[in-house]
Amino acid sequence: MRILVQRVKEAKVVVAEKEISAIREGFLAFVAFKAGEEEKILEKMADKLLKLRIFPDEEGKTNRSLNDVDGELLCVSQFTLYAETSKGHRPSFISSLRGEEAKPLYDKFLKILAEKSGKEIPSGIFGADMEVHLINDGPFTVLLDSDNW
Fold first, then answer.
1. From 27, 79, 93, 140, the catalytic residue
2. Partners of 10 in the beta sheet?
3. Which DSSP category does 98 fall into?
4. 64 φ, ψ to 5°?
5. In angstroms, what CA-CA distances link 34 with 39, 114, 138?
6. Nearest Cα residue to 2 out of 37, 41, 31, 29
7. Active-site residue (options: 6, 27, 30, 78)
8. Which of the listed residues 7, 90, 119, 149 has the most CB atoms within 10 Å of its CB?
9. Out of 80, 85, 93, 126, which one is annotated catalytic?
10. Is 55 labeled as catalytic in the residue annotation?
């Protein structure tokens, strides 16, 4: 599982020219699953994301989490995080989990995040063609990859 986290001033998702979700200060998290992914990683990744300390404290050090700054979280599914680009010029997505298998994991991940944070988690629409608008803060972007644990 991979999560590309961007610290944002604000972010929103638009589908068919209609805004479907938006946040103010917080994280925009792009979420992807690889083939063979198991449910057991969801809890650990949710904890890592929610406790990630990338907001500045009073001394300017990245020492605060989403909760510490009362930040919001917007999740967007993005299978392209598992793009394979080592051969040729056209990415291959063979490592990405197929949509019908990834959607239940994504839905469960959103549920876990909501339970752990005590907040509703706005998201994109799984499998939809989305426009994602954001104002990156920093910029500050971090990749969480379950293969690194």
1. 79
2. 135
3. P
4. -120, 145
5. 12, 23, 29
6. 31
7. 78
8. 7
9. 80
10. no
Cβ atoms within 10 Å of 101's Cβ, excluding its own: 13
Phi (first) and psi of residue 54, to 5 degrees? -125, 15
Strand pairing class (72-77; 26-32): parallel
Instruction: Identify whether 78 is a catalytic site residue.
Output: yes
pLDDT digits (tens, 9 = 90+) for 65-113: 999 999 999 999 999 999 999 999 999 999 999 999 999 999 999 999 9
H/E element, 108: helix 99-117
Between CA 36 and CA 42 the distance in angstroms is 13
Cα dihedral: 34, 132, 103, 2 (round 10):
30
- What is the residue type of 109? F
What is the pTM for the complete model shown? 0.95
Identify any residues that bridge with 33 across adjacent strands, giving them in sequence order.
none
Q: Is 85 a catalytic residue?
A: no
